[in-house]
Amino acid sequence: MPALKKCYYEVLGVERAAGDDDIKKAFRKLALQLHPDKNMGRHEEAKIEFQDLQQAYEALSNPQERAWYDEHRHAILRGGLNEDFSDDSIDIIPFCSSSCYKGFADDDQGFYTVYRNLFEKISIEEVEAGVKQLDEEIPPFGDSLSSYDEDVGPFYAFWESFCTRKNFAWFDEFDTRHAGCRRVSRRMDKENKKLRTEARKDWNQRVRALVDFVKRKDKRVQAWKIEQEKKFKEREALLAKKFAEDKAKRLGERKKLFETAKEKNNQLNNVYKDQLKEMEAWMADEFGDKNETESSEEEECLYCEVCNKSFRTEKSFMNHEKSKKHLQKLQALKEMMEAEDEEFEESDEETNTEEGFPDSENDHQTEDKKIAFSETENLCKA
């Protein structure tokens, strides 16, 4: 692994998020301290340091140069971007095998020590390569006694959704600083971004595959799954028991309501039993039984010839005879029959005079009509 160069931000003594004014103030302060004329006892060493300071300030004071440096900082610190540069990222392929560890103890060759050291190295690379600071701390891998809720769960939640902060600028094929025009620079930048994206995607997939392998082998995860399955079965049994109890309770309440309603119904039947018997007796007396009515309908039926109505009881028939409507019809019938009698007598007198019949016959006919009317009236009353 090549020796690391010193970062421009460290040379100026500023944070990576420092503004232009902070960079300028830091440069002026260090320039007064590191100027060779003020370090006569170590002139050559001070000269080299001052040159590095000037180089760092020139790169970071220019927005375009600073942006390019931020993108390629990881590669520059590891030897630059020449043809001989090679990516020195950790090779995680050998760690996707059970042969890289021995047992699940916490010794140097054990599962938890090997993968704790591995993920610490990957985390350091991510922190060093990132242009921006991490929004959250990377959870540690822990050891064999680590709690799942506090350590193991957060660790896998972070790494299963891992997305690298490396920009993979060392995969760039073209140096945009040497572009002749803006159009060529854009084409170069487009090709470089395509290569970076492919490299970033490949690295993310390899790290996630590693996390998946480690999680499947982790005894802490296996124990947690067994515990969760046990808790799930206990919850299912508790819910089933509660459901059965609720069902039995509902059935008991319904049975109780049914018994209460039945008891109230019996009480009401007892209260109104005598009244129902009285009503049935009154109905029988008033209207009679159906069989008796059918058998004696012709014998006991009372009929009014005047109003053309029939009655089942004598009481209803007597009430009808006293009604105003019946009396009016009866009076109209009498007047009509008297008028007919008068017309009939007059016509008979004329006929007898012309034919010479004696008046005694006419008198007999008039008497007959009176008798017939009387019989009709009696029949109505009967």
β-strand percent reads under 5%
Q: Can you list the strand order of the major beta sheet?
A: 1-2
Low-confidence stretches: 291-299
Biggest sheet character = 2 strands, antiparallel
Distance between the termini: 140 Å
Mean pLDDT: 80
What does this structure look like?
Strands 1-2 form a two-stranded antiparallel sheet. It is elongated and about 180 Å long. About 2% of the residues have low confidence. It contains 13 helices and two strands. With 382 residues, the protein is an all-alpha fold.
Topology:
Blueprint: H1 8-12, H2 20-34, H3 43-61, H4 63-76, H5 111-129, H6 148-160, H7 182-217, H8 219-287, H9 290-295, H10 297-300, E1 302-304, E2 309-311, H11 314-321, H12 324-355, H13 359-381
Antiparallel strand pairs: 1-2
Helix pairs in contact: 2-3, 3-4, 12-13
In a nutshell, what does this entry contain?
The chain is mostly helical and 382 residues long.
Tags for this entry?
two-stranded antiparallel ribbon; 13 helices; mainly alpha; single chain; 382 residues; 2% strand
